[in-house]
Amino acid sequence: ANQLSEPGLREALRSELSSEAVLAYVSKDIPEVTEQQALAFYQRHPDKFLQVERRAAHHILLTINEQFKENTPKQARARIQSLANKVTSDNFEKLAERHSECPTAVNGGYLGLVSRQQLLPELDEVLFNMPSKSFSQPIYTGMGYHLLWCKQHYPEHRVSFDDAKAQIKQSLYEHAQKQQQRVWLSRACKGENLN
Asked: Distance from CA of residue 81 to its chain's centroid?
């Protein structure tokens, strides 16, 4: 893409690796972040550790396409209703793999841990009003007919310090490294003594 010859690419790579090595050396003496420092950050920034309400969800999609007899609106509606009548927690994923016309079919229709406003509004409204471990009736959207499985609720909560500690320590350490590197680069650009 940059129209580099092989020797030019080798030189660019050598230069980049040299720069990374110098920056790593410049910040090598940054001390590890202590648990007390991580706890202080956690306590100063409680909003950073809020996890919104989510749902573990799967779905089956049957699209509408007049060019295919089985995907006319009437046929798709009949097919999705037939699936709705036989889904269980034991067979939903297999039915999704076999019948769903969505790329999620390869994963049993798994949509992931979904928070509000991630899905189409029609699906979002139904999913966030479903009890845990329940199935929806057919839902029509512009894409076609859907069945939802609300596998589990995850209510809004604050991530515990124990669960966040390792990530906080890593993030604070990397921030300190970058800060040290910026100071060094600023001094280098001004022609100051770097010893």
From this structure: 31
| Token output for 140 | 């029509």
The per-residue pLDDT for range 33-80, each reduced to its tens digit, is: 999 999 999 999 999 999 899 999 999 999 998 888 888 888 999 999
Determine if the pTM surpasses 0.70.
no
Task: Write out the two tokens for 6.
Answer: 């092989």
What pLDDT shows up at residue 139? 97
State CA 101 to chain mean position distance.
22
Report how far apart, in Å, the C-alpha atoms of 129 and of each of 26, 67, 86 are.
54, 35, 21
CA distances from 114 to 53, 70, 134, 171 (A): 8, 30, 15, 25
CA–CA dist 157, 164 (Å, integer): 13
Q: Which residues of 41-50 are buried (b: 16+ CB within 10 A; e: fewer)?
A: bbeeeeeebe
Question: How crowded is residue 60: how many other Cβ atoms within 10 Å of its Cβ?
Answer: 30
